[in-house]
Amino acid sequence: MKMWSGRFRHPLDPQFERWQRSFDFDQRLLRYEIAASAAHARALKNAGIVSSDELISILEGLQKIGQETGSGKPIEDDEAEDVHHYVEKHLVALIGDLGYKLHSGRSRNEQIVTDLRLYVRAAIDELRGQLSELCDAFVRRAEQADIAAVPGYTHLQPAEPVLLAHWLLAYVEMFLRDADRLADCRERVNACPLGSGSVAGATLTLDRALMANELDFSAPTNNSIDATSDRDFILEFVNVLSLLALHLSRWAEETILFSSQEFGYLHLPEAYSTGSSAMPQKKNPDLLELVRGKTGRVIGAETTLSVTLKGLPLAYNKDLQETQQPLFDAADTIFTLLPLITGFMKAVEFDYGRMSEAAQSGFMNAWAAATYLVKRGVASRLAHEQIGKAVKLCLEKECELQDLTLDELRALNPAFDESFYECLKLKSVLAIHDVIGGTAPDRVRQALAAARNKIEALREEVHAHA
User: Fold this and answer.
1) Neighbours of 434 (CB within 10 A)
2) Residue 210 domain-assigned?
3) For residue 7, what is the DSSP state?
4) Which are the contacts of 438, defined by CB distance < 8 A and separation ≥ 6?
5) Are residues 386 and 426 in the same domain?
6) 341 and 370: one domain?
7) Number of domains in the chain
8) Under a CB-based contact definition with an 8 Å cutoff, are residues 305 and 235 in contact?
9) Alpha carbons 198 and 224: distance in angstroms, whole number
10) Which residue, 234, 342, 352, 392, has fewest beta-carbon neighbours within 10 Å?
11) Tell me: the pLDDT tens digits for 161-193?
């Protein structure tokens, strides 16, 4: 029996009936539907709608449905219109017509948005846990790299040497911001719509605070119209996922470049690579390319949600059913990516020698050279020009700055002396960036310790919500 069929004189068109059902995808909300239904049942008992014995029967029936369907395998049910219908139908089969009493004073409009809030809240907690593991993998590799240097780039052109650890920590900063955004989103997700009814509020005097507390929400929602039509929390969540995916994609792109023969800074782990069916020598960065490709999928889900929501009048409209699949797909995509990338980072091999060699060629010590003159009283703009002329001379002679003679340097500026050659060495070039956030080894060690503390704090927050 449909949950709404009383006023209808004719059955639904079979093709339409099958097409408009959502149970195939919203069944993943089943455990949240059961939890929310249990909270509603307790509120009904407090309101005098069901007796203590009836409450026990309802709760036992809901628990049994959860036990029977807890394997995670897809549920086949050709009658269930949605997850709410499925639970009611099976509850009635277990405890008789008392099962119909559970729907007293509530609407599917409030049920679905409650289930979705519970799902997003749980997804946030799981993703923040995965992000803590991902950041840990990056930090461990940064610690192992110690003072190994790699070229830093601007405009994809060699700019200055940086510590490999500094490069890895740049991504840790991005991922930690993503974890913070998820935490911010969680605060807005964590409000309970139960008791909102279909649009105007429940028709029974239900204790909304009790239901919110039962489900560990911070408070009931403030407005029944907004509560039943709000999907901001889904859009915000997927927006954060799209930004996280974007960060993963940037990492993947750089890692693809650095793994190529032209760069050779790292060797792809075979466990996360594939070969070519035509060229026997190939090792392809398939994981990295798929990370880059699946980012479009997550951003596409965000766009789908925005377009779906942009013109909807208040309150509930069936269009809102279309917000579920983009949500699930975006979350599933990120859930799958993060452990794979964590595994990749644990297995990847860096070629410290190749990186160090590249970090000491191509005039990446030129700014350090200009700084040498600035510290001797030369105006910055003039120092820049004079080192530029020194680079031009090197290009003509096919050499590096350290290969110029002191006489050649003094012809450009008499401030040069023998100490200039020491400032050009990789160790000196790195050390000169001795500011908060800089790549000087002592600063990077401080940044590693700070990152460790942030990761531990993140883990404690995740554990607190477990």
Assistant:
1) 12
2) no
3) G
4) none
5) yes
6) no
7) 3
8) yes
9) 8
10) 392
11) 999 999 999 999 999 999 999 999 999 999 999
